[in-house]
Amino acid sequence: MTSATDTGIDASGATRAAADATAAAAPSAASRREQEIRAELANNPQALQALDRLVAGLDAYALDDARRVQALDDFMAAPNAATAAYVEGRIAQALGEDFAAAHALVSPDAGTLTIGGQVYSIDHGALLDADGRQAGTITNDGVVRLDGEEQARNVYTDLSARVQLRETIDGELSTLLDLHPADRRGRLDDANVNRQFADRVKDTLVRARQEGMAMQMDLVYRTFAHQDQLYAQGRTEPGQRVTNARGGQSWHNYGLGADVVFSTPAGQPSWPEDGNWTRYGEIAEAQGLTWGGRWQNPDRPHVEYHPGFGASDAGDFIATHGRDGLEGVWDRMDIGQQP
Prior knowledge:
Order of helices and strands: HHHHHHEEEEEEEEHEHEEHEEH
Largest sheet: 8 strands, antiparallel
Number of domains: 3
Strand order of the largest sheet: 6-5-4-3-2-1-7-8
Number of strands: 13
CATH architecture of the largest domain: 2-Layer Sandwich
Strand content: 15-25%
Number of helices: 10
Structural class: alpha+beta
CATH topology of the largest domain: Muramoyl-pentapeptide Carboxypeptidase, domain 2
């Protein structure tokens, strides 16, 4: 029998070489993280485009694997084009790259912001009031700091904020983020809407905004009488049929159903066929909501909340509602309002 020694091969060296080859072939932690992100954002093409931009930007820097993973994690806090610019800019700053170029990535070059009832224009990260005076700053991660306020604001978690962030790319101003108010009429704060449900819908809207999806509330609470009017449409009244649910048979009637739609560039409600409906549904389901897009007859804007009960069980609460009102329904479901 011929041994490794007989042939002049160092067995331990061969083992090390094989291990090195295996390590070289194995994907890095950053590569694995990138693929995880791509899988999560598969139904949001705009977010994937932003990720592509970030990855291309990161390739220009000498980053170790850990720092690259951190950059990808930072991007996932709000995966959109503005965040991609911000993350790259922060890396450039940390590595001592050209300050002006790095600042241009961290802060938007132009745009507008309406927050707290005030309208500001944006000039290289500075917020200017109607008289052109600086009133604060904004960065491409969505953080707003107004002069005289200790607490920073955030354009994603403030559902009433209107923001447009623009950057100069290849000599032209391009819009990186464009969001309109998500609940301008305060429908989720209606006393007839269950708070646990409303909070889950708000969290859904926040995440949609973080992913660059301009969405807004269309309808939440609907009375039994209104439901009956809609049911009559296309049956005993003129118009097309819009619902198969009579009064008390829809979760809207108990403050546990809502319709969320997209916003046009002008801020009007829209039901686009090519909207990111599936990604919206995934976000809603992650918040524990039932998404109507999964139904046999899909209702893509619709979400509802009825833990422990099925989508078709709403009619079982008619008697409870008649006797004890909305609070009685919520108590029966163990989702009553917090004191």
